[in-house]
Amino acid sequence: MKVIMLGAPGAGKGTQAKKLAAKYDIPHISTGDIFRANIKNGTELGMKAKVYMDQGLLVPDELVVDLVVDRFKNPDCEKGYVLDGFPRTIPQAQALDTALEKNGDAVEYAIDVDVPDSSIIKRMSGRRACVGCGATYHLVTIPPKKEGICDTCGAELILREDDKPETVEKRLNVYHEQTQPLINYYNTKGILKSVDGTQDMDVIFNEINNIVES
Ligand code: ADP
Ligand code: ADP
Ligand code: ZN
After folding, report:
1. Where are the domains of the chain?
2. What residues form DSSP beta bridges with 146?
């Protein structure tokens, strides 16, 4: 199963992608997570990406596409994957299609998690990410069992630097300009599915399951 999660920053793509990947035992591939891991490890790619991420801008396509296409070569991708945060521009989507077509392959579902901008700001200010395993919580809607501590690995939870309100606004603008056009791109291909992302996390997951099982 090859699935793409679309949606604004903070719409809940990652939350749903992790659940779907776990259920189908396929990898959850998040380009944001890959960049953050590179930043943490001080790699050259990480240092390049950080300059853009800190400003709420997209990392240039040429730094993203090969990274993802290489990741597909890993044997864990044999049964498919859930892509989260990629593609984020039309050129990235075209590059993905071209890479898959070479193997007679294609994306099966592009699932848009739809949340209005007014709710996004609240989502982002409450988002807390684990420094250890990358798990995501929310202060109000999805709190950890113990304040400030990851349920899964026990590491500290932090507010991402780019989740501060000044940067969120910038990221939303970037989303509308560069990423939202993908909705039409996948709609034209006949594989777009939309879910109302303002619902409870489990209700959304049910709807997504119905989509991929249909
Ligand atoms: P969110 O979960 O809020 O949508 P991500 O973790 O996916 O954010 O991405 C964080 C940042 O990493 C983005 O703001 C962008 O700078 C960079 N990034 C992640 N994926 C991509 C991509 N496919 N293309 C360009 N930049 C990306
Ligand atoms: P994205 O990957 O699209 O940037 P996340 O999955 O990280 O978004 O979710 C953004 C924030 O909203 C997180 O703090 C997450 O815990 C919370 N969240 C996710 N889904 C829901 C939901 N259905 N209702 C309320 N809060 C949610
Ligand atoms: Zn953790």
Report:
1. 2-117+165-213, 126-163
2. 149
**Is it true that domain 2-117+165-213 has CATH number 3.40.50.2300?**
no
Q: What percent of the chain has pLDDT over 70?
A: 100
Tell me what pLDDT residue 149 has: 98
19-34 pLDDT, tens digit per residue, is 999 999 999 999 999 9
Indicate the top mutation candidate among 19, 114, 141 to test ligand 2's pocket, ranked by most ligand atoms within 8 A of CB. 141
**DSSP SS3 for 4:** strand
How would you class 127 by CB atoms within 10 Å of its CB: exposed for 0-12, middle for 13-18, buried for 19 or more?
buried
For residue 136, what are the contacts with CB-CB under 8 A and spacing of at least 6? 14, 15, 127, 128, 129, 130, 142
Ligand 2 centroid to residue 94 C-alpha, Å: 27
96 with 88: CB under 8 angstroms?
no
Asked whether 167 lines ligand 1 (CB < 6 A), one says: no
Q: Is the pTM of this model over 0.90?
A: yes
Q: Is the CB of 14 under 6 A from ligand 1?
A: yes
Tokens read off for 10: 């903070």
For ligand 1, atom 12: residue with the closest CA = 32
Cβ 31 under 6 angstroms from ligand 1: yes
Round to whole Å and give the CA distance between 84 and 69. Answer: 14
CA nearest ligand 1 atom 18, residue: 32
